[in-house]
Amino acid sequence: MKTSKALTGSFDSNAIYELAGDLHTYADLAEALSTVLGKEVQARGLSSQEYRQALAQAGLPEPVQAIVAGIQDDIANHQLEVEHSDLDRLLGHAPLSLVEAVEEMI
């Protein structure tokens, strides 16, 4: 496991750091899961309404459904994509690849 210099470094307390990684799609995540698990995993796209229905069926309260669905809408509309990130510099190394990250979580 790699360590982060962000844990030991000194930082300007007035700075704002953007901690974004590489951009990935749900298809990319399905491919990484397929690689790690050794079996095919497929991404399935849902409309915003279908997603809200799934959240409701999972028992999430309406206010939480609205927040989570709103985040997914922002992702679909590219609202959370950033062009600059301080992540590599703060880590002191490149972030894990998607496959490496999935391997660590599973």
UniProtKB/TrEMBL annotation:
Top-rank taxon, per record: Bacteria
InterPro entries registered for this protein in UniProt: NAD(P)-bd_dom_sf (IPR036291), NmrA-type_oxidoreductase (IPR052718)
PANTHER family: NMRA-LIKE DOMAIN-CONTAINING PROTEIN, QUINONE OXIDOREDUCTASE 2
Name of the protein in its database record: Uncharacterized protein YbjT (DUF2867 family)
Organism: Streptococcus loxodontisalivarius
